[in-house]
Amino acid sequence: MSNLLPTRIVNFLEYGWKFTKEDIENATSDKLNDASWEDVRVPHDWAIDGPFSPENDKQIREVIADGILAPIIHTGRTGGLPVFGVGWYRKWIHIPAEYEGKRIYIEFDGIMSNSSIYINGIQAGGWPCGYTSFSIDLTDHITFGDKNLLAVRVEPKPGASRWYTGAGIYRNARLLVKSNINVKYCGTYITTTDISQKCATVNIRTELLNQSNANGHVTLATCIYDPLEQLVAEEKINLTIENEETAVQQLQIKEPQFWDIKSPFLYKAVSSIFIDGELVDSYESTFGIREITFDAKKGFFLNGSYLKLNGVCMHHDLGALGAAINVRAMERQLEVLKEFGCNSIRTSHNPPAPELLFLCDRMGFLVIDEAFDEWRVAKVKNGYSQLFDEWAEKDLTAFIKRDRNHPCVIMWSIGNEILDQNTPEGAKTAAWLTGICHALDATRPVTAGFNTPDNAIKNGLAEAVDIPGWNYKPHLYKQYHLEHPSWVMYGSETSSCVSSRGEYYLPAVEEKPPVMRDNLHVTSYDLAGPRWAYPPEYEFMAQDECPFILGEYVWTGFDYLGEPTPYNTEWPSRSSYFGIVDLCGIPKDRYYSYQSQWTDKEVLHIFPHWNWEGMEGEFVPVHCYTSFEEAELFLNGRSMGKRKKDPSNTFTRYRLIWEEVPYEPGILEVVAYNPDGTAAKTAKRQTAGKPYKVVLIPDRQEIKADGDDLCYITVRIEDENGILCPKANNEISFDVSGAGEFLAADNGDQTSLVLFQSPARPAFNGMCMLTVRSLKDAQGEISIKASGAGLIEAGIKVKSL
Q1: Which tens digits make up the pLDDT trace of 578-595?
Q2: Which range of residues forms the domain containing residue 419?
Q3: CA–CA separation, 635 vs 661, rounded Å?
Q4: What is the dihedral of CA 576, 579, 585, 587, to 10 degrees?
Q5: Predicted pLDDT at 7
Q6: Of 204, 277, 360, 585, which is least packed with CB atoms within 10 Å of its CB?
Q7: How far apart are CA 470 and CA 477, in angstroms?
Q8: What residues are labeled active site?
Q9: From CA 450, how far away is CA 435, in angstroms rounded?
Q10: What does the DSSP 8-state code read for residue 120?
Q11: Are residues 151 and 272 located together in one domain of the fold?
Q12: Are residues 171 and 238 in the same domain?
């Protein structure tokens, strides 16, 4: 058996790629000289490099879901970035001679999009959908003991999306060397049953593949380990594998530890194949032991305990980094979300990078894993409707098989605001997709988000899924529950409030639709939204009054590239206004509204800023998000009155408002009171002087020297007393040296056309964000400096270990 590989080898294909954004006729030829091509590392998003332009993927289209029934010209729908075209990637891979007789695979977690994979000039495979993960067997085309040319052609098309997709090999790629007898790609399915404090049964289905003529004695040994690498269960079975085989095992774990959002306990299953006692393949799967229950009257339960789903919808881009995945960037987003009480993510509107689910497993987030934004009825010219009939089953199958072992995933979503809601065939399609989900995973319900629910109910589509989700319908929760008491329901998209961080306009009144302003910004009083939207308080009230509703998923957690509603036709608006957090990760005021409702923290946040030059004596509304029931406002020591939350009023049930505060420079302070009348907490806004200095605040003092880890550094412009200058827009220049490198900068301004890769960035309302990356294997200090004309510069050091 000497020709069998002792265990699988996995190599990430990160470095050594050549790239060009043009269609080269002989790009698969080993004779081609690609020395002039760009050197890139994968994951790679070619579109994020820009430049921004209103001509990039300009779309002329109606938006039926938004009530725009006549075609309009969208200039920033996909970020005003070059997300379409043809690109080629090439990489030479040496396959040692001793690997002959083994199987060589390549795995891609996603290529955006319409990819074709070539090895040594021969097309070996590809995938049209940019969000799907897939594996290709390259063995028959490999030259062992020599270099092999891997070439990837990518062709994302114009008019293919309603948001920024990125372009290229934007997720991880891996080369695998495996035995001829091996565990297949995404080859385990793990469920847990008979769960109690004393014991849990772990059911494991393992898909095995035999691509050899070996007739030896085959044994599958499965071992389960806890997070401390302690063996907690094991089982061996003997098999005869002629071609493909699915092995079924049941293992018992005594005194199991449960996966929960507060204690996300993970187990690891190691599936090992032995032939005549010799190890030839080993495959690891992580999983958790947990029970999920959905009750039509009582809501959602995790491990028997009631839990409200405090969720947000998230697009897959990482702001200034584009769509190229980075684990630390995703982890930081989740940290920011968790801080204001978010406990669940809806992957809007596509399969996420697999790393996101691993992070949610580890950090304790629940996930609605979403597959499609289109079925057969198109939303955009070259969207998924062009692929649906041929590829929907393949994509959905790949999606569920990849993600079904993750304990964080609680529902499969088969669609978002599908226009098939309005067609007679919609219910049949929904039933077909739901059936695919159930066949592949019977442990989770299937859902979809409906924005025209009356139509979806009438044509049977809503009943064809297990759990219907209502988009922007808090006023209908009670009616739908009364009419369909056996249905489990939740708010699959809520609020859709729009804002620009730090921008405040008077009067502070509800804007529906938002007032269109020449600077293309939206007030941050959290009262503005498009026609379907509403301030967060309306949803809070509905959730409080409807315990049968599982929870809500706010549109959105972070701002994202593209879809700049309400400025769909105005340039240079190029990213969204929907986020609770801005594009670079700085919280907006609304962040504290959710934090006051979703956490047990003592929250006290007042806004707006207190720099209203030229408005002395005029009234400025002051709002306060707080977890306290009562607070008093003081202006330069004078009381402006007490306010107490009023359960009878939608707004003042959740926020405190002083409508008429006469502006005068100085200190605006709010004091929150305990129920006994004693002061509990204070917060203030103070009139800032002229911009004086730059201040740098890193999110971490130490990062890993792996070439991928990041440090996010908040940049503030302050006056000489350390007060944030809330209107400062000074240009800040960055210098990074030592064991790290400048990666990107952003300021959260939806209208900025400064490239994210530029080492100079104007502040937006006094702040911006710098992203620094470690250098691979370069341990030591990273020196970061930030300077601006007329400002005292700042310098800090971060360690790379």
Answers
A1: 999 999 999 999 999 999
A2: 346-496+532-558
A3: 8
A4: 130
A5: 81
A6: 277
A7: 8
A8: 417, 493
A9: 19
A10: T
A11: no
A12: no
* pLDDT given at position 1: 28
Contacts 24+ apart (CB under 8 A), 624-627: 624/655, 624/656, 624/657, 624/670, 624/683, 625/589, 625/592, 625/593, 625/595, 625/596, 625/654, 625/655, 626/596, 626/655, 626/656, 626/670, 626/672, 627/596, 627/599, 627/600, 627/601, 627/602, 627/603
Q: Do 357 and 482 sit in the same domain of this protein?
A: yes
**CA nearest to 324, candidates 732, 773, 769:** 773
- What is the rounded distance in angstroms from the CA atom of residue 396 to the CA atom of residue 787? 50
Low-confidence ranges of the chain (pLDDT < 50): 1-5
Query: What Å distances lie between residue 613 and 147, 166, 394, 616, 663, CA to CA?
Result: 68, 42, 60, 7, 9
Same domain, 623 and 713: no
Is 741 strand, coil or helix? strand
**If DSSP states are collapsed to H, E and C, what string results for 376-402?**
CCCCCCCCHHHCHHHHHHHHHHHHHHH
Exposure pattern of 444-481 as b/e (b: 16+ CB <10 Å)? bbbbbbbbbbebbbebebbebbbbbbbbbbbeebeebb
pLDDT for res 63: 78
What would the two tokens of residue 1 be?
Answer: 């058996």
Closest to 319 in 3D by CA, of 611, 149, 574: 574
Whether 131 and 202 map to the same domain: the answer is no
Residue 370 CA: distances (Å) to CA of 43, 351, 416, 437, 555: 22, 6, 8, 12, 15
- Is residue 417 in a domain? yes
Report the pLDDT value the prediction gives residue 792, as an integer from 0 to 100: 98
**Is residue 311 a part of any domain in this protein?**
no
Q: What are the angstrom distances between the C-alpha of 147 and each of 117, 120, 143, 154, 255?
A: 17, 9, 7, 23, 52
Alpha-carbon distance of 174 to 172, in angstroms, equals: 7
* Same-domain pairing of 367 and 429: yes
Please write the tens of the pLDDT for every residue from 493-513.
999 999 999 999 999 999 999
Q: What is the pLDDT of residue 214?
A: 64
My answer on whether omega of the bond before 71 falls inside 30° of 0, hence cis, is: no
Are both 708 and 660 inside the same structural domain? no
State yes or no: cis peptide before 662, omega within 30 of 0. Answer: no
**DSSP letter for each residue of 445-487:** -EEEEESSHHHHHHTTHHHHSSEEEEES-GGGHHHHHHH-TT-
| Alpha-carbon dihedral angle through residues 119, 123, 124, 129, given to the nearest 10 degrees | 120
> Considering its fold, how many domains does the chain have in total?
5
d(CA 49, CA 323): 11
What is the CB neighbour count within 10 angstroms for residue 612? Answer: 17
Same-domain check for residues 169 and 188: no
Query: What span, in angstroms and rounded, lies between the C-alpha atoms of 216 and 372?
Result: 44
